[in-house]
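Following up on my earlier thread - several people asked me to post the actual chain instead of describing it. Fair enough. Here it is, all 243 residues.
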Amino acid sequence: WRSIVKRGPYSKGILMKRKILSASAKVFLERGYAGTSSKLVADLVGVSNGSPFFHYGNKEGVLLEFVKRMFSGQFRIAERLTGDATDPLMLYGLETALQMHIVELSEPLRELYVSAYTLPSTAAYINEGMEKKLAAIFGGYLPKATENDWVALELATSGIMRSFMSASCTENYPMAAKLRNYLSCCYKLFEVPRAHYEPVIDQIVRIDLTKTAQDIIDETVRQVDEGYEAAMAGREAPEVVGS
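Reply from S.P.:
Thanks for posting it. Predicted structure:
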């Protein structure tokens, strides 16, 4: 009897999507969002007809899948960094500080994150559910805030984040100063007393998160690659937490 080898539960379409995401991730990290063309990705994937992005709707759709993995990774690591600490101000500060460190790793990453905070679908994903998290963190400081207030505050902090990400650190404006200015703006927005937030900021600016930021990017790429390899082998791909 001739043995029959099962190819696994994945269709060619799913395999192609995972391959496109893996290739796009590599180009995103090398060239940023604007510099990632369908031709560059098609050449890596081996597609000769049409744009490979149509599998995700468009290029923005591919970025959305990549953003989901980046953000799930940074939230998990921020929680791990806080350890047994229960101070929500510290958790908020570390999560956002990690993003600031990520964009300093390279100019393509800066442009990629700024694009993620700007494009409709990726910005919506980043903002999704954040108003509830903000209410949980800062509700004690703004007891009269309504649901609409938290939505507005999330939009405001996203705008602040995007603006600070756009400005690169320099010798005269190092990461410690940038983080201190950024976090002060956010904590003031939520009416946190200076006596409460200054010790938190002092702690955060002393932590070098550069290696942790690089680990997040490396882990994101590994997840994307594993998803494709798992699909090729007919195994279940790693879950994306929070997506």
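The chain has eleven helices and no strands. That should answer part of your original question.
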